[in-house]
Amino acid sequence: MNQRDFISYCQSELGDAYVLVESKDQVPYLSDWRNRYHGKALAVLLPKTTQEVAKIVKACDQALISIVPQGGNTSMCGAATPNDSGQQIVLNLKRMNAIREINPSNQTMVVESGCILQTVQEAAKTQGFLFPLSLGAQGSCQIGGNLATNAGGTNVLRYGNARELCLGLEVVTAQGEILHGLRSLRKDNTGFDLRDLYIGSEGCLGIITAAVIKLYPLPQTKWTALVAVPNIPATIELLSLFQKRTAALLSGFEMMSKDSLDLTAKQFPHMKNPLTNDPFYTVLVELSDHEGEEHARNLMEQVLEAAFEAGIANDAVIASNLSQAQSFWTMREHITMAQAQEGANLKHDISLPISELDTFITETDQLIRDQFTGVRIINFGHLGDGNLHYNIAPPLGVNASEFNRVHEEAIHDVVYSQVEKHHGSISAEHGIGQLKLPDLEAHRGSVAHQLMRSIKTALDPKNIMNPGKVLP
Ligand SMILES: Cc1cc2nc3c(=O)[nH]c(=O)nc-3n(C[C@H](O)[C@H](O)[C@H](O)COP(=O)(O)OP(=O)(O)OC[C@H]3O[C@@H](n4cnc5c(N)ncnc54)[C@H](O)[C@@H]3O)c2cc1C
User: How deeply is 175 buried, as exposed, middle or buried, from its count of CB atoms within 10 A (0-12, 13-18, 19+)?
Assistant: First the structure.
């Protein structure tokens, strides 16, 4: 099949309206969220059913056309952007957005991969359940993309990341076969775990078309507080204190540095930190409780009192209603948006053993400031699970693209060698994509890298699934 026949075939299978071949129609699908990567595509395809996806992948397999699976296109590492050859297709799943089932007895939901995360959360809520995956891009990212990147977000501390929230998958393999794995079992030890291979594979092994996801009882109440903390060791002590005293009720523990909140207030003036005296670090704590309002509020107050007594907190404000709690979360979630508005910056989505966080930050801040005078270090993260977003913006007044062009490699080298030294990971939740592809082998080691290659070759021998991402 040549390219022209391939396009005609897709048009006959999907309908002309869902095969975008004109450049003007393709624009939203060809660049990444950070506007760092720009590609071209032979066509952007918008299938509606698993069968349509299977037919297209079969045709791609025959015509040797490579496929870039795409969800909400919010990847932070260029994982869903085609290359500039104009020979790849983008297969965007947004039309596969049906919620196939909500099963209250199983506490599961069967969703198609193109469902927007927020829609999934809302559908679960209408039935009295919580789907806990929660992240800043939830209004645009899709559940298929969340699973393909094993997304984390703000609730990992209590509920785990996307992998832990998924029981079964329906996948179209690289040969266009349908793997029917929509099982809602919590125990299933029947050979190699294929589901776990596809989760986190960033579209390089197959296309996730639907998933069985786990639901949880909706907490009766949530109490949210912002706490001013003098330094990182105090932040870690505060985390331990909350873990000891509130156990499984602790559902959020987000750390935000003074610089990250100053930047957010600069870009979004209505999002000022309500804590006065400019704390060095602000922690957002959330308790989710099934025992009624008073229980959680009392606990929150008791732990905060103990924190004041221990000298690990200087100030705190407990949200007095839902809308105030929401405003705390909105401020936290807007740090990424504020950075994007301020200009290009160098992102490091890393994780570290919690016991290493303080030394990592102290040493790395020093190394970066010594070598790159005037840079702004914006750090914040899901501290409860050791996930730090350690981002570097150029000195004020300096052209960001030029600064990044000259210093990007050297800055990554400093940060990633520090990550290795402190036994961390160079990608906590965003994945590898094309951004971190050059760093993966050194980080994971040659044995792990070779095993990943063997898996890729076994499942996608013609290398048509998202080539150039994750593995070179
Ligand atoms: C403002 C903002 C905040 C964010 N916050 C967080 C956060 O807190 N935690 C976090 O983990 N991430 C965060 N992210 C990044 C995060 O990875 C994505 O938001 C999300 O998980 C990706 O989903 P998506 O649908 O946009 O996927 P895309 O960006 O479209 O794709 C991502 C990868 O998945 C593959 N893919 C997509 N759909 C499928 C499918 N159906 N089958 C197979 N492969 C597929 C693509 O090929 C690509 O490799 C944030 C992003 C933004 C913009």
Answer: middle
On whether the CB atoms of residues 28 and 82 are closer than 8 A, the answer is: no
Residues with CB under 6 A from ligand 1: 33, 68-76, 79-80, 93, 113, 135-137, 141-142, 144-146, 148-149, 151-153, 202-203, 207-208, 336, 429-430, 466, 469
Taking a C-beta distance cutoff of 8 angstroms, is the pair 117, 149 a contact? Answer: no
Per-residue model confidence (pLDDT) at position 5 = 95
CA-closest candidate to residue 286, choices 380, 223, 218: 223
Q: CATH code at 251?
A: 3.30.70.2190
- Domains of the chain: total: 4
Residue 195 CA, ligand 1 centroid: distance in Å? 18
Same domain, 243 and 334: yes
For ligand 1, the distance from its centroid to the CA atom of residue 80, given in whole angstroms, is 8
Whether 420 maps to a domain, the answer reads yes
- Best probe residue, ligand 1, of 49, 50, 60, 75 (max atoms within 8 Å of C-beta): 75
Dihedral sign, CA of 410, 148, 286, 422? Answer: negative
Among the candidates 342, 373, 406, a domain finishes at 342
Dihedral sign (CA 429, 432, 438, 443): positive
Same structural domain, 378 and 399: yes
CATH classification of the domain holding 123: 3.30.465.10
435 secondary structure, DSSP code: T
**pLDDT score recorded for residue 229:** 96
Strands 89-92 and 67-70: parallel
CA of 149 to the centre of ligand 1 (A): 6
The answer to whether residues 227 and 156 belong to one domain is no
Are 48 and 133 found together in one domain?
no
Q: Which residue has the tokens 């179209």?
A: 172
Mean pLDDT of the chain: 96
Q: Among 170, 199, 217, which residue terminates a domain?
A: 217
Supply the range of the domain harboring residue 261.
221-342
- DSSP, collapsed to helix, strand or coil, labels residue 109 as strand
Does position 38 have pLDDT exceeding 90, yes or no? yes
Please give the Cα distance from 469 to 83 (Å, whole number).
10
371-388 pLDDT, tens digit per residue, is: 999 999 999 999 889 999
Average the pLDDT over 281-293 and give the result.
92
* Cβ–Cβ < 8 Å for 373, 367: no
| 50-63 and 3-14 helices, crossing angle to 10° | 170
Task: Extract the tokens encoding 378.
Answer: 């914006």
Answer yes or no: is 176 within a domain. Answer: yes
DSSP bridge partners of 381: 255, 388
